[in-house]
Specification:
Oligomer: single chain
Shape: globular
Radius of gyration: 18 Å
Largest sheet: 4 strands, antiparallel
Number of domains: 1
Order of helices and strands: HHEHHEEEHEHEH
Strand content: 15-25%
Helix content: 25-40%
Number of helices: 7
Number of strands: 6
CATH superfamily: NADH Oxidase
Distance between the termini: 28 Å
Length: 196
């Protein structure tokens, strides 16, 4: 499938997609840190930076801890990822000039911006990412010893894209970039004009 833009945009936004086929190529500590460095510079409410990442490189105990919490469907393909990253966020923050932590209503929004920064950095370095909601959040919290006060959002597989033949037959058909809804379905001027 060829992805086309309705308005001028840098190609990396269109070319980024979430494959499931990975080669298993190891990712270096320097490369994985570059992904987190990109995320570090994402915008956040009052510069509170609520995002937290816990990762494991393939073959490590950390990888196995995160992998064990994935649903079987995701385990089937994520086993060849180079790294797995749990994306978390602090649900409270201390605003500049204050000393008391308060609920942070934008923690998930800000963490989404950090995740996208990570994904785009991966693309520029020749790595691919695939975020997953199919995991047991309670088990992940337990495995990674995530305390109360932190939300668990997703698990991201990072790796070098492999051939679709690495996947089971049923997934090979789906191993293509997908389309998007048209701009008109998500953008309106002046007032809400969308279908429910």
């Amino acid at each position: 499938m060829t992805r086309t833009a309705q308005a001028p945009v840098d190609r990396r936004f269109i070319d980024r997609w979430s494959p499931r086929s990975f080669t298993g190529k190891p990712i270096s500590a320097a490369d994985i840190m570059s992904l987190f460095e990109a995320a570090r510079w994402a915008p956040s409410t009052s510069n509170t930076q609520p995002w937290r990442f816990v990762y494991g490189l393939a073959g490590s105990a950390g990888f196995e801890a995160i992998f064990s919490t994935l649903v079987p469907f995701n385990q089937g393909w994520a086993q060849r990822a180079s790294a797995l990253v749990a994306v978390l966020s602090a649900t409270q923050s201390v605003a500049p000039g204050t000393a008391q932590a308060k609920p942070s209503p934008n923690h998930a929004f800000d963490t989404g911006a950090a995740w996208m920064s990570l994904a785009l950095q991966a693309e520029t370095m020749g790595w691919r990412t695939h975020a997953m909601g199919g995991f047991n959040a309670d088990a992940l919290r337990l495995q990674l010893e995530v305390p109360a006060g932190f939300a668990v959002h997703c698990v991201v597989a990072v790796g070098e894209q492999g051939p679709r033949e690495n996947l089971p037959a049923a997934l090979q058909e789906r191993e293509v970039p997908n389309a998007r809804q048209p701009l008109e379905a998500m953008v309106a001027e002046g007032r809400f004009r969308f279908q429910a």
